[in-house]
Amino acid sequence: MRAALTRGLPGLLVALMLAALAMVWLPAPRAHAATDVSTVAAALRKGPVYVDPAASGQLSATEADALAAKIKKADKPVFVAVLPAGFPTQDLFRNLRTDTGITGLYAIRLGDRFDARADSAVMSRSAVQNLVTSVQGVKDANTQLNDFTDRALANIHGAAPASWGGGANDGGVSTGALIAVGAVAVIGGAGAYTVVRRNRRRQEEEQRAALDRLRVVVDEDITAFGEELDRLDFHPAEAGADDAMRADYERALDAYEQAKTYMAQAGRPEDVRSVTQSLEEGRFSLAVLAARREGRPVPERRAPCFFDPRHGPSVTDATWTPAGGAPREVPVCKADWMRLTGGEQPAVREVETDYGRRPYWDAGPAYGPWAGGYFGGGVLPGLLVGTLLGSMMASPGYGAAYGNGYGDFGGGYDGGDVSGADFDSGDFGGGFGDGGGGDFGGGGGDFGGGF
């Protein structure tokens, strides 16, 4: 009997050792919590930094705490997640933003790759791309994430979500903490709702003030175009009139009526863009009509005169240097071209500001949508480089306050607001790794492209 037990002892010891090893190598329960987007989102609703247990070697708990404390101290909606290289990447940004439900900037370190996306209400697509590119070559995770965060905090719009509360977030998330997330969300719900209402009221007040200022300028433009139509003295049945002339005249009249209708319906500053766009189209139709009546070649479609769009379509480009700025080519009408070549100052469109009448490009961001309708999104930034309006448009903050489309205040949600799934999915689309593009494998939208 004793001998039998002795002979069986090695096998028993082996079994016990294997069992012990199995227990040692079993993954901790908290590691399982990091296997899906909902776990990451739950953690980010609680604090600004989440480190997956499987990626803890990239960013230590101490480093994560310091980064979280920095973001909370700045009171900005910056979310940072550190995930293992094997984490699923399909629609990662879009799904994370949907599950988190908070307007903000989302940065993800996935293995040794890095990318970010943001709601356009907090940061423009180009700003995100520039920030991502600026840290793309940094290998050390702590250095990369801190460099990115420091630069983002200096540019991002909005405030931290109410659900974060106080204190720094720990890098990982324990099972107990995840269980408590539901309670935290409920408690923070009332505060988040209050923040949303406060931000919306502020935005509405800003919109009304900006629109009231713009209305004066736009009404002047509409009146000036109506006077041009009166001076034209064209009659569709007059001798020499043909179908092309009548079509030009009809388009000009339609543009005039459209501009009046759009302005009457305008409720936000960005709505003004459609008004000035209609006026630009109407003035070009009048220029074409005038050429036909005078037997001249139909003019090419050009941007309106930079110095005052009421001058009509430009005829050439001329070198112009704003005060304190660099020379650039701007579209000018014939009269302003003659003034410039003769050493005179062009006839500049001035508007009322708190500091008296100023050129529209030095009058502040409210005139972005007005100018954007005349010149279009692709042309305007280059024309305005070095001016007050151009500087504002170039900053991410302008995209937040006045939108990417020169005056768009966005959908009513500010940084840190709880919007749930109510956001532009294009902001978070595309592929991981394309520098501000989209899900982890394709392109599209403000958040298009790949990781």
Keywords:
451 residues, alpha/beta, two-stranded antiparallel sheet, 8 strands, disordered N terminus, disordered C terminus
Could you give a quick summary of the protein structure above?
The protein has 451 residues and is α/β, with parallel strands linked by helices. It is built from 15 helices and eight strands. Strand 3 and strand 4 form a beta hairpin.
Report on the structure:
- By secondary structure, the chain is of the alpha/beta class.
- The chain has helices spanning 2-25, 29-32, 37-46, 61-74, 92-100, 125-135, 141-153, 175-232, 243-265, 272-293, 334-341, 368-375, 380-384, 388-394, 396-402; strands at 49-51, 78-83, 105-110, 113-118, 316-320, 328-332, 350-353, 356-359.
- It starts with a helix and ends in a 49-residue tail after the last helix.
- Mean pLDDT is 77; it is low at 1-6, 20-34, 167-175, 394-411 and 437-450.
